[in-house]
Amino acid sequence: MQRRSWIYGGIAAAGLAGLLAWAFAPRPVEVELGQVSQGHFETTIDEDAKTRLRERYVLSAPLAGRLARMSLREGDTVAAGDIVARLAPVLSPLLDERSLREQRARVEITQAQVQRAKARVEGANVALQQAKNEVQRTEQLAGQGFVSPTKLDNDRLTALAAQKELDAAVEERHIAEHGVEQARAALLAVSRPLSAGNGSFELRAPVAGRVLRVLQGSETVVALGAPLLELGNTRELEVVAELLTTDALRAQPGSRVRIERWGGDGVLEGRVRRVEPAAFTKVSALGVEEQRVNVLIDISSPVEQWRALGDGYRVGVRIVTRSVDSALKVPASAVFPLPAADAGSTEGMAVFTLRDGRARLTSVRVGARNGDEAWLTEGPGVGESVIVYPPAAVRDGVRVKERQV
Q1: Among 143, 251, 279, 305, which residue has the least CB neighbours within 10 Å?
Q2: 343 & 314 share domain
Q3: Short-list 353, 376, 380, 351, CA closest to 365
């Protein structure tokens, strides 16, 4: 009996010791896991932006007179040459000579503008020819493997931009010539005033487009140069993003842009056309003064996809500053600096990988990172598990297990 009691007592003591060992044994740390993957990686500059017309035209009164009531309203479509307003000259005899001089000077000014527009067209033609020659040379060198495909893409974009500059210059010349016609007609109206029976002076649209604003719709007497109507072609929109100057340096002309949150389905494509050279000061919502600069973006998606957009609409843009194919990627929250490393450098970075149920400290080299992912130039293999947001209890060799959601 006594021997049996010793046996039972020994078993109970061993069970108690095992229970205590289990109770006080270190538990695996619960962690969240991510995967090392390979795919497309890019960094972007995200910012709110707005649309605007490339060119807008304010039609003003070419002479002092009585304006007839306009029938046009905002959103109406007009063709080039359509009558948009009528003016009946109202001239005081004491001002006849001054009015004549003003109108003659106006004719001379518009003629000078035509000459300037023609010079711009000639310069744009030269720039376009140079861009085409450069593309031809680059295509030949690219076929022989002497230049990178990126250089060829940039040259083609430069040629496309030169073509658009030529189109704008031709349009400017057309507007200038229309201004000469209007100025000559106004001079004729002043030198030979129209009687009530002869009709009135007709103001015509210089370009095809839509009415943006009617600045003077009612019948009234207007002075020379008074703004009457604002026109624009809503099919020729651009996007303006106000970037911090530190970000604008990375938004190079030709950079790809994704236009989101524009109100329609899908994502629109665009390209950075120009970064304006002059910055301006803007106060943020937190009251901080910031130096910002306008970045102009062309919409490259088909017009039919975004025809509902208008002037001054709010959109969101993502300007791609770096794009890498077949990149080794991990969640950005898995990468952390080693204690001895400078927090501002990409050297001395590491991740915790999961191997045989234990966390293993693995050094990595970070090429770049965005808000979600980090691009590793050196690191663990594809498919390995890494610990995201590693807790303070995780150390090299510590037992871990995946947290169950």
Answers
A1: 143
A2: no
A3: 376
